[in-house]
Amino acid sequence: MAFAPVYLDWNATTPLDPAVREAMLPWLGAAEPARFGNASSRHEYGRQARAAVDEARARVAAAVGAHATEVVFTSGGSEANNLFLKGAAATMKPALVAVSGIEHPCVREPARQLQRGGWTMREIAVDAQGRIAIEDWQAVLAARPRLVSVMLANNETGVLQDIATLAAQARAVGAWFHTDAVQAFGKIETKFRALGVNAMTLSAHKVGGPLGAGALVVDKRVELSPLIAGGGQERGLRSGTENVAAIVGFGVACERAVARRADEALRLAALRDELEQALGALGARIFSATAPRLPNTVFFALPEIDGETLVGKLDRAGFACASGSACSSAQPEPSHTLLAMGVEPAVARGAVRVSLGRDTLADEVRRFIASFAGVVGELRNLASVAV
């Protein structure tokens, strides 16, 4: 009997939480009473769907300390990020948009697209640990940007930014500040008001929810132009018949992620530290080791070993991890995040990410360590023979 690999790629996506699946089943016609109404319909079926969407919206809002009217459902984090940047820019005269040098492509690329409409784009530098470089940030503020986007937690290194301070400073020069909190939510406390941002992005599938659901949490004082026009759903900011099943699942996933966050953070941080100690003993370079990070994420490299080769060997040994961001895994180039941190391209090509989650067991991490040591020894022997 073949066994599935141990899953160590929780930053890419998470398995559906059983309680989330249970809540979604009636809206998929897989449990009684079956639910299938269009949330815009005025009859009983539609009213049931609208009530389910409203309840999910309230759950998402409560999970991040926002008001339900500030939650705009989208198809995921990428759409939410695009909605803020393009939607806000469409209401303004072209000016400066600033994004950090380690943003996810779904922030970098729309910022670049704005340049075709006359905007100026500026990437904010980071230091060797992946934190916003203060001197460069001060230079950005002096240029008086209108839009700023800095992620709360990096998807590769797990590095955390001081968003509350950055947002306050950006507001002081008249900028609207957005943070991509997709990786942070469910792993650290993530409160909309406390962060002081104008907008924040969330994604269901990162916290045990379904693929295809996300949200832009946005201050109602922020004017946005919709990316998708039509029937006027989501306060006119995101037209289209709501994906009720996914939205229902998203709401439950947010509620459960908050409930288990504190205990899970402690447990996963202990496993992460054990893993990093073992990797360091084998000569691995742990990226951003001295910066505040997510409790579940380890990004490392063995300079003499190719990351893709190492990930392939580990997969065949029964462990699923990543050589970088899953969203850019089709690109053979070194990690954009590591290059922004000043890591040499040859080292960056060796980068491997291990990310832990709610189902990760201590025994699985220890078995990974043992297998990793064997795989690395094998690759080093091959390299010495080749020389």
Q: Quick recap of the structure?
A:
By secondary structure, the protein is of the alpha/beta class.
Outline the structure in words.
The radius of gyration is 22 Å and the shape is globular. The longest helix is centred in the C-terminal third of the chain and has 38 residues. Helix 8 crosses helix 12. The chain has 387 residues and is α/β, with parallel strands linked by helices. Helix 6 links the parallel strand 5 and strand 6. The two termini are 39 Å apart. It contains 12 helices and 12 strands. The protein folds into 2 domains: 133 residues, Aspartate Aminotransferase, domain 1; 239 residues, Aspartate Aminotransferase, domain 2. 40% of the residues lie in helices and 12% in strands.
Overall outline:
globular
Largest sheet: 7 strands, mixed
Coarse structural class: alpha/beta
Q: Can you tell me the CATH topology of the largest domain?
A: Aspartate Aminotransferase, domain 2
The CATH class of the largest domain, by name, is Alpha Beta
CATH-level-4 superfamily name of the largest domain: Type I PLP-dependent aspartate aminotransferase-like (Major domain)
Mean pLDDT: 95
Distance between the termini: 39 Å
* Proportion of residues in helical segments: 40-55%
Q: How many strand elements?
A: 12
In angstroms, what is the radius of gyration? 22 Å
Give the second-level CATH assignment, the architecture of the largest domain.
3-Layer(aba) Sandwich
How many domain regions?
Answer: 2
Q: Please state roughly what percent of the residues sit in beta strands, choosing from under 5%, 5-15%, 15-25%, 25-35%, 35-45% or over 45%.
A: 5-15%
Low-confidence stretches: none
